[in-house]
Each structure stands twice: as structure tokens, then as C-alpha cells.
């Protein structure tokens, strides 16, 4: 077996065997296969695509390239949620405590934000003292004790994926559904959970810009999960505008706390209930989606979800006083109001561009080395299809630099579109993908 023959076989559109895929991943990871041969194979895959079986085999080879987290010492069915990334997406901060309060163990490995998308770890670190670098023993102990832990992925998870992604990034081979799906799922599966619910975003602020592509990616990932004996469900949700009203780390933590207290944005709660009810179903805590909704609403109403969030923050070294009093979280020195120049209805709020405005203010990082301003960000006062009067505030920009605030405000003016006509055809969830296939809503 050699790389020349493997490249030629895929170039001609033939299916690679499990042994050939394993050979490639093992030898590319250890440095035996040079970048130019790996690039040639990636380009052949990009054009000739991969079968369902090839994609599952590629995912398995990548997750086996490094450490697999053993969570068997955690009692019960371990569940996890993964989002493909968006703007204002603080779902994990709400979902984790709600599901844990229902008695289901949530063992979550999360990432940091890069570019216009925010990262769960960065948001959590806006809470003073909170530690996301948990040892394996501490991680497992916390899940067994309080049913919830969130930590950063170890450097040893799926090293083949890290190496391959860097190569895909510079060889124009990122946008292939099988390669995207195997990249995401190799890390999720290596993290050790028994059941996974995927939140596949679609729209201007998402990686997948159209519905067909989003459903295709969701189907690939669900097939991989099921092919690897993990219960897996995907929800396709809207990211044409930010989720909720807050964009930025401490601002999103405040919004998450409000949601756990029953005072959160409608769209954030709706998505959390949809994801959470399916986690409870996969975790065998309920027998139906409807029962899942009822149980999740109950833990909001009786305060146990908020209490669980506070318990989780304390268990990971965070300052619980900031949970009780969110005004103690990092606050920007300046707030600039963005006002409407005309009356009408908000017709467009490009999520990616709004995310980039938050990035200008300091809420995100352009490179892995960038420092984040935990207090910076944007609070929307209006969302798509809302009525707005001339001079009414559309958004509040939080920052610590006059220059950055003015730059972000100027950009925001061009992003938010106002029209004369209303449109009430807003949709948050477009469909579900599970073992039975695609169900569009």
C-alpha cells in the first residue's frame, strides 16, 4: 500500500477502503506522508467526494489518532451538545444547567471563539476565577456530583484533524461536507459522550449559508454518529440574525442568567428547549419530546436550573457573587447608542457582519493569540421584522475605545436594513435529522 496508488484510486472516483484511510491518517499524522501528497488526496476527495462508509471510516481514523476520553466512570448516559458556530450563541450556558437540573449528566468539551463566532470557554471565563482547564479526574468528579462540567479539549484529541485542517485551510479544500463532518465528529466522538445533539446553524452568520447544505452536513454528521454507535440527532436552526439580544462575553453570560431565571429572549429559550428535550429523550429521562419540554420548563419555573448554574460555576472555581449579581461582571466604560435614521421595519441584520462589529469592539479574537475584552460587545434593542421609529435605538454598543466604538457604529449603520413593509415569516428551527432521516419543518 502506498500514497500514490491511494491518490490515483480516489482521483478516478473509486471508494477507499478502511485500511487505505487508516494508512493515510496514521502516516500523515506521524509525518511519514508529506504535505504535497496529502494535499493531492484532499483535492481528489474535494472533487470526487466520499461515500457514507468512507466518511465514517475517516472520522474513526482521525479520532483514533489521539486520546479518547474514557467517561465510563460517570454514572448514567452521558450527553453532549455541539453547535457549528454562530453569533450570540450562548445556548450551552443555558442548556447545560437545565438538562443537569433534570438529572441527566452533561459532560461538555467546548472550544474558544475565532473570528465572528463566539466560544463558550471565553464566555465562561468572563466570570472571575472560573477554571476550564479541569483535570480528567476533576471533570468526571464534577459530572458525577452535580451532573455538569464544561472544559477545554485536550491537545491530544484528534491530532490528525488539527494537522489536516491546517492543510485544508491553505489548499482550498475546506468546503467539502464529508471533510467538515468528519472534522467535527472526530472531536465530539473522542470526547466520550454516549449521546450527542447537534445544532447545525444556517444563514449569514453560519458556516452553511443555505438550507440544502445545512441539511446535507447534518445528515452526514448524524450518519457518522450512528455509524459509530452513538445516539445522534441534529437540529437545523437559523443564524441569519444573532441568537438572543446579547453579543459579547460578559453580556452573553448576563443574558444566559436572565434566561435561567425565566426572563430570557424568546428565540434563545425556544432553541434551548428544542435541543434539551432531545437530549433528555436520548438520555432516557423522558419518553417523549413533549415530556422533555414540560420537565425543562419546570426546572426554569422552580429555580432549580438557575441553582444548578450557580452550583456549576462554584464547582469550577468561579465567583458565585457575579451569578447572583450580574452587575459585578465585567462592564465597558462606554455605551454608544445606534439610532435609526428612518422609520419602518428591520428587514435585515446580517449576523456575520454584526459579529464582526463585536470583534472590532474587542469581544472576539482575529487570531488565536488575540486578547479578548470581556466587557465589549453589542446589545440589540431591535431584531428582524421589528417596527422601528426614526431616532429609536437599534442597538447599544459596549466598548472601551472611542475609535473602536465609532468604527463599529459606522459599520453597523450599513448592516441593519430598514424597509417600509413588515414580514412576520420568521422561523428559528427548519428541521430535524435523526436515524430515520430528514424532517423539514
UniProtKB/TrEMBL annotation:
Catalyzes phosphorolysis of the pyrimidine nucleosides uridine, thymidine and 2'-deoxyuridine with the formation of the corresponding pyrimidine base and ribose-1-phosphate. It holds the Pfam family PYNP_C. Residues 345-419 form the Pyrimidine nucleoside phosphorylase C-terminal domain. Its EC number is 2.4.2.2. The keyword Iron-sulfur does not apply. It comes from the Bacteria. This is Pyrimidine-nucleoside phosphorylase. Belongs to the thymidine/pyrimidine-nucleoside phosphorylase family. Signal peptide: none annotated. It catalyses: uridine + phosphate = alpha-D-ribose 1-phosphate + uracil; thymidine + phosphate = 2-deoxy-alpha-D-ribose 1-phosphate + thymine; 2'-deoxyuridine + phosphate = 2-deoxy-alpha-D-ribose 1-phosphate + uracil. InterPro entries: Glycosyl_Trfase_fam3, Glycosyl_Trfase_fam3_N_dom, Glycosyl_Trfase_fam3_N_dom_sf, Nuc_phospho_transferase, PYNP-like_C_sf, PYNP_C, Pyrmidine_PPas_bac/euk, Pyrmidine_PPase_CS. GO terms for molecular function: 1,4-alpha-oligoglucan phosphorylase activity; thymidine phosphorylase activity. PANTHER family: THYMIDINE PHOSPHORYLASE. Homodimer. GO terms for cellular component: cytosol. It is an enzyme of class 2 (transferase). The keyword Glycosyltransferase applies. Keywords: Glycosyltransferase, Transferase. One of its GO terms (biological process) is pyrimidine nucleoside metabolic process. PROSITE patterns: THYMID_PHOSPHORYLASE (PS00647).
